[in-house]
Amino acid sequence: MASLSKKNPNRYFDPDPKQRRIAYELYETVSALPLLCPHGHVDPKLFAKEEASFGTPAELLILPDHYVLRMLYSQGIPLETLGVQRLDGGPVEQDHRRIWQIFAENFYLFRGTPSGIWLADELQSVFGIKDKLNGKTAEKVYDKIEAYLARPAFRPRALFERFNIEALCTTDAATDSLSHHQAIKDSGWKGRVIPTFRPDAVVNLLTLGWQDHIDALSNLSGIAVDSYSKFISALENRREFFKKMGAKATDHSALTPYTEELPPPEAEAIFQRALKGKATEEEAASFTAHMLMESARMSVEDGLVMQLHPGSYRNHNPFIFNLFGPDRGGDIPIQTEYTRNLKPLLNKYGNNLNFTFIVFTLDESAYSRELAPLAGHYPAMKLGPPWWFFDSINGLMRYRLETTETAGLHNTVGFNDDTRAFPSIPARHDLSRRVDANWIAGLVVRGIIDMEDALEMSKDTAYRLAKKAYKL
Amino acid sequence: MASLSKKNPNRYFDPDPKQRRIAYELYETVSALPLLCPHGHVDPKLFAKEEASFGTPAELLILPDHYVLRMLYSQGIPLETLGVQRLDGGPVEQDHRRIWQIFAENFYLFRGTPSGIWLADELQSVFGIKDKLNGKTAEKVYDKIEAYLARPAFRPRALFERFNIEALCTTDAATDSLSHHQAIKDSGWKGRVIPTFRPDAVVNLLTLGWQDHIDALSNLSGIAVDSYSKFISALENRREFFKKMGAKATDHSALTPYTEELPPPEAEAIFQRALKGKATEEEAASFTAHMLMESARMSVEDGLVMQLHPGSYRNHNPFIFNLFGPDRGGDIPIQTEYTRNLKPLLNKYGNNLNFTFIVFTLDESAYSRELAPLAGHYPAMKLGPPWWFFDSINGLMRYRLETTETAGLHNTVGFNDDTRAFPSIPARHDLSRRVDANWIAGLVVRGIIDMEDALEMSKDTAYRLAKKAYKL
Amino acid sequence: MASLSKKNPNRYFDPDPKQRRIAYELYETVSALPLLCPHGHVDPKLFAKEEASFGTPAELLILPDHYVLRMLYSQGIPLETLGVQRLDGGPVEQDHRRIWQIFAENFYLFRGTPSGIWLADELQSVFGIKDKLNGKTAEKVYDKIEAYLARPAFRPRALFERFNIEALCTTDAATDSLSHHQAIKDSGWKGRVIPTFRPDAVVNLLTLGWQDHIDALSNLSGIAVDSYSKFISALENRREFFKKMGAKATDHSALTPYTEELPPPEAEAIFQRALKGKATEEEAASFTAHMLMESARMSVEDGLVMQLHPGSYRNHNPFIFNLFGPDRGGDIPIQTEYTRNLKPLLNKYGNNLNFTFIVFTLDESAYSRELAPLAGHYPAMKLGPPWWFFDSINGLMRYRLETTETAGLHNTVGFNDDTRAFPSIPARHDLSRRVDANWIAGLVVRGIIDMEDALEMSKDTAYRLAKKAYKL
Q1: Domain with A385 in it: what CATH number?
Q2: Domain extent for A82
Q3: Structure-derived torsion over alpha carbons of residues C212, C218, C219, C222, reported in degrees to the nearest 10
């Protein structure tokens, strides 16, 4: 998969020669722009020390990538044989060359998938590997990556610079001390790695170990969180700290985008029951809905951009969750309703010009039906880029085709790579820029826009919309 | 956006040269056919007097177009600065040149949207403007339109004739006296402007000012509406009057397409509670469901085509609704279920060959799942064209791709422009005819149909299906 | 429609010359592979005796095809005029030439539909007819088909061999004696026609005549089914018999994919109420959900592949159902939820490598949202091909575009023709192979895969995936 396709300067473009020529022309004007990464899950520790390294090729490309793990698991390959740590400390494969061999032999499973495209691109662009990955080439490819990873030029900070990243936003718990971000600052290194405030673990009253998270929140904020009002104060305190550390945004996960404001006494009562370990599922859902309202209020006040990622049924497979923990591929999307669920929040804060509210979805049927109409009306609301499974050639294309006509481009916010897999970042941005260039070229060849518009739209999608929406 | 694209005789067609050639060939056979406008919201007053005019360029192109207003508002432009009247009489921009300037400076927001396409087309086709609209050209374009609008050739009736409109159906409340339609008749002008019967305000028991609407209904029908049975008689009386005035159809809006027949005593009891201002939301929903059944019965009897437009959550944004009233861009679609909701109505009337029941949707996921299968089975049911946000290049294309294989073409009813913006009508029909020609050409180049079939399908989509379904 | 398109060796391919060339190249490598038909509804009686025949052209092409019947009915053609038997024995058209004439005159209704494509292909490929079917050619075409059908070369077994069918799976009630399958075995004919175990009628406690089905189950299994545990034993007994007769799979229909394990006493209690004719709708739904769990357990034990076809609202139109019985086009899809509904089953059996669970859908919005993510995680679950209305050019294409990026190709199971209309089988497989070749060629011209991958994917989609998933 790797070599042949990668050499193609027109990859991911439609085959029509005219559209292809224009797509390439548009792509060329943005391909060298710096990368903005306003939402993702890269570990800031990688950049805390100059000498940090990525480990083995398996640690680089397989173990942190749950897209890869889930596909291999779905085809009957136990996670143990891929070296995934078991929570019970049971035996798992230790030989990273053997893990790599299994991966390479099964790399054909990724034909036509974004993981396949990104991995092939990474191998070639980052490591200069021209062989196609399979069982036969596995060993040789492993050797080559291993040798590169030993070099200073392949350390995280060096790649950060080589990748031309202008800003990389991490995602950090409300109770994170941000010590790695502090270490980056203290080191004098100029790479811009900034935190994002994600309070899910303290907001969701049924999080495993919630009381421990609350205790950590008390410690870090210096506010003893023994009441709802103290909880709010502690969160505001942490947001202020995150802002000082450079944060531009918050991020919120929820099973549904349900929003609802509780009367303060009710919020307090639920919080007190949670402190006694007695909150019910229903109460926790109400509290989450209420805290989305509160988070919007805080954003209006402190200017942090608010992101909402709803609709993922977490840990759908208890067998895997109990053996290996979360984030192993067992999160599954559900149908998601936005029009009624977001009404309270949008009614109260959606007309506020000081507020930016970026909404994502795992339910593509909501693009044209609910999300584009909402983002095309409320000044505060913007539509986030295709998330997770939909960060793909067809997913990105469907997003443009199903949202632009109603919401326009300027109610969207550019691209998010949303990845844990740091070295895949250039491949992801390249794919996104190419898909957008191809889409815009499609508008040109159909006489819908002229080249002047097309060049503006290219810069918007590749760089400017993200910069503006996330205030980078 | 305007000039370059408009000159392109192949605009909106796929770039493949062979498909493009066939698309153009098909388009040419229908481009000069008269326009049938079986559903829309043009004000009949425009045609009541020969000397009626469109007002200023802002009154022509900005103020009546809530697609335009919502996009500008979504980007933080207050409706007051666009001259939208406030209900409280508060100050709004009065200078139409300044409104136009704001619009022109922000016209880039409409790149890739149907509003952008239609407006660019109107400026060029109707007003001969070759400049691209932006902040710099705003003044010059305004002057030109203003000058044209002063001429008799740019009055509504003159444009009606120039646009080659064969029939224009307006949408009129059950309590409308149809005085403008009468004036058109009396004037001797030959333009065919006919009413459509829309009883929503009297059928929905919770309409603001419902009792006033009922009083008006009593006055106009001469039937004192003090009971459910009198209500039915008064509606039948009005339908007869609309028919005499040329009406071919009725139109019904509802939050959901839920249908349910109430026993007469229950309908009467709910109606009596409504007369006392005591109907509940649940009762109103039941009554709406029941009245859809009654409307179907009346259509079976009087032959008026029944249209159903469900799934819009009206006035989602109370801030805007309270300041400016309805129809300012704050209506948002919701998920819509048809299979179970329409079952009572289809079971009772769907097999009746005297009945035509045209169903629309704002939930595209229902096209292939529910609507095409239902329209492809029940003789009475037909599928309306893409509505509202989906009257767009991609929306029209998705409609064809997701409904034709199951429902065929003959269970659909051609195009509706559904607009308040009269001068956009030719641009809307042109776009629809081009998209259909391109789709049909796609079938030819893929060997799915031959040219003989393609030519028939082109005439069906551009003219014949609408004529037949709406009995025009 | 017939002649022109059929001669086109590039039919159904995209028009781009490069993609078309590659599509044809890929198609050529699979076009002569044998046909695997792992799921369908062909009557095994056709093959029980060497001298069986298809009857008249109307009996061959119109009467068994509810796709054809529903389209004609939707356009106001009474089923009586098409010769469909009435349950009350009322008069229906007996003259098959007249039925054929009506069909031919209305064949234009099928423009752009899969039925239109398959029928045109059958007429040409199976019967060598070059005329396009319409009112004028009807008589001549009828004569030609009639003459062919009289020849031994056009008997079912002869066509089975000419069609190069490697295996044809029928769908058979749990209470079917499989006498036709036995007759095929006994005859010494080598055609592989194997049964599939479909227990719907005994599992759904509200099936019309359920007690009769239970009695038949008792008789055939030799187990007096007077309790839930005996019911389970009888089903296991029948499964064993089906396996001996060559069955590889079971098939299950359900209104929703809801799964839930009942405690054995509760299952027994519900079953006892059913034996007394007193089971409620709610109990029946619980029992169906429970039996899906039980069927999965049995599959884990006996190795039969489990298929699930949910989401069809059967007999939506009682007028047609009461006059003509089921399967006349009155089944309509509904919205279908998989993530929560399948959780119990997948949690208990989805990680089991001995289990193959193939899930279908009539709700395409679930492809990218729920089905591809589930199939891309659970080892047991595979995604069935586009079902029913979606076995079409656009339906097949949407399936690939909306599932592959998340689930990969190897969590899908190849093509199912799922037809009652035996002579349409080659046309259906040809269309599917062409659509897949075109899709894969699209990946090649976009630089996503190389030709080596493309050739593998072509063989997978056309043959290997079905062979592996269904253990043929």
Answers
A1: 3.20.20.140
A2: 54-152
A3: 180
